[in-house]
Each structure stands twice: as C-alpha cells, then as structure tokens.
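Protein entry
_____________
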Amino acid sequence: MMKRILILALLIAVVFAAFGVATGQSTAFWTADYFNNTTRSGTPVLTQTVAAVNFNWGLGSPGPTVPVDFFSARFQTSSFFQGGLYTFSVLADDAFTLRINNVPVLTTEAAPQPGKVISVQVNIARGVSVVQVDYVELTGQAFITVNWVLVNSGGGSVPPPVVVPTAVPPGTVVPSATSVTTQFGNFTPCIQQNIHQSNCFTSTGAWDAPDLGSIQMEPQIMIWGNCTPDAVVTQQVFVGQPAQLTSCSKTGAGWYIMPS
C-alpha cells in the first residue's frame, strides 16, 4: 500500500511539473455563487461549477433565480501556480474585487470602471493558491472576464497591489457569452468559430417557428447570449463607440445590429 501511495505522489508531481503554470484559468474549475443583492449576503440563489470566469449576460442574468439588475457573485478557485510574477486582468461591468489567498489585490467597487481592462501584477509562491473574484452588477449591461499570465518565474509573497488600468481599444466588440443553447440548437460551435448563427440552427418543426432561410437572412450575431427572439434594445456593441439599435435573433442566441 505504501508503495502505491508513493507512486501516486510521484505521478502527481510529474503532472504539476509538466503543466505547472496557471495561465488563462486553464488548470482549475471555479465555484460560482450568485446573490440577489449587491453585497453577496445571505444564501446564494444560484450555484454553478464553471471552467472559466468569462461571461456576458447582456441585459439578462446568470439564471431565472437571479435578477437582471442589482445582483452580485463570488467566483472562487484553487489553482496550482508555478511561482513568480503574474499579471491578473479583469474586465467587468459594473465592479469587482480580486483576492489572492484572501488578500485583496485589486478592486473597482468604490469607483466602477465598466468597459476597461484593469490589471495588477502579483508575486505568487509556487504551490496552490486560492483566487477569489467578487462581482457586482448594478444596471444595464452585465459581464465579467478574469485572466492571468506568468510574467517572470520565481517565487515570493503577495506585494502591495499595483493597479494598471488599460482601456480596451475602441472598436472591440463587447464581451459575449462563450456558450449558448436555445430551443433552436447549441450555438457554442458558432461562437467558437465566429460563424453565422444559421450554421448551428436546428428547426423545431413547429408551424410558427423560424426556418433556416429566415435565419440566414439575419445579420451575424455580434453579442452572444440568451435573449427573447425579435426583442429590440439600444446597447453598446463596440467598446468606446455609441450604443446602437440591436435585435435579438429569431434563434434567441444573441443580438445583431439592426440595418439602418
């Protein structure tokens, strides 16, 4: 038995040595807790296990139990880090607080900066560290993306935070959902390949349902995310540019810009 335990420990060490660096959230799952208030108080109304913190709910919410405005979330993961200087980047609307091993290293909760990538460099010792992101949605658009990358290898402890706000280049499309499924099909492949929604459309056969031809006539979806078919809203499609009139696709998979 002891021999088997030693062999297992050796195999785990080899895996960590091979994959070492936690880059772009590629090595761990997150627990996502959602609250129907902006203070993350009380019992979560929705809990999920997600592969990455990369969401765009548009004018919606993470689920039917979560309100579309004035909600909050807590994302937490335990991930193995090679050790060294890492750059953490967060894009959120409206605000967030980033903690490493329960130490706050970056926050915009006192002064939200929606539509901006906010970054901080942190020294992290080799081993498993807990990354936690607290998120607040007020009104309007709701999205958040979290990422990190190793800058220099080495080791160390968490230093005082250095905040480096970086504006998203004008013309960048507002972040979209990374996975969308509706009654008309799974549109995740279309999101991943950046192709027209008609390529993922499946007819329900109902007499009043859209057909492939009507979907092909729609413009390409720009902001992916579940929505009510044919709904029309004015929203920001490109960072740094005025809001535009958009319509929800007949597939219910996202928003396209309405022709002028």
Observations:
- The two ends are 72 Å apart (CA to CA).
- The first strand starts at residue 30 and ends at 35.
- The chain has two domains: 16-167, 181-257.
- Residues 1-26, 160-167 have pLDDT under 50 and may be disordered.
